[in-house]
Amino acid sequence: MAEHSNERTANNAIYAEGLGAGIFYSLNYDRTFGDFAGRIGFGYVSLHAGVSSANGSSGSSGSASFLSVPITVSYLGIGSKKHMLELGAGATILNVGANASAFDVSSSSSSSGSTTVVLPNAMVGYRLQPPDGGFLLRAGLNVIMGGSELPVLPWPYLALGGTF
């Protein structure tokens, strides 16, 4: 009979995470190295709004976009190889862009701007990751440190995906 090993054979994971370090959502790649895991993700949200007069001679519009790249490192050494406490830290690179325009029959104006910030974050949560591959579940609390305007944002997360 083959002897069962306590070593992880499925070290890669791909998952979608709602909220968390990606702010709104993120699609992520994760790789485990012993009791540690590194993750990089990508999230993008674009919002648009506009209004115009009944005859179409004047109006205004606005848009905003949010591009997030979460990068984290987690410690997975507490628990079994399948059910574990996840403790992690990292940063989210967030690019926010905005555009606004207004027009009427005699003139038009527009403005735009964007900024990129790096937001440190820390997480604590539960991680279900079978050592030989299969369904991945992550759930917990991610604390994003935003600076003077929004010093700390406690942000829950739920991630579903697979390991291979």
Keywords summarizing the entry:
single chain, 164 residues, mainly beta, Porin, 8-stranded antiparallel barrel
Structure summary:
Helix content is 0%, strand content 73%. The chain is built from no helices and 8 strands. A hairpin with a 5-residue loop joins strand 6 (108-128) and strand 7.
Question: Could you characterize what this model shows?
Answer:
The chain has 164 residues and is mainly beta. The protein has one domain: Beta Barrel (Porin). The protein has no helices and eight strands. An eight-stranded antiparallel barrel has the order 1-2-3-4-5-6-7-8. The model has no long low-confidence stretch (mean pLDDT 89).
Name of the top-level CATH class: Mainly Beta
> Strand arrangement, largest sheet?
1-2-3-4-5-6-7-8
Query: What is the name of the CATH topology?
Result: Porin
How many extended strands? 8
SSE string, helices as H and strands as E? EEEEEEEE
- Percentage of helical residues? under 10%
Second rung of CATH, namely the architecture: Beta Barrel
Chart the SSEs and their pairings.
Layout: E1 12-19, E2 25-33, E3 36-52, E4 59-79, E5 83-103, E6 108-128, E7 134-144, E8 153-163
Antiparallel strand pairs: 1-2, 1-8, 2-3, 3-4, 4-5, 5-6, 6-7, 7-8
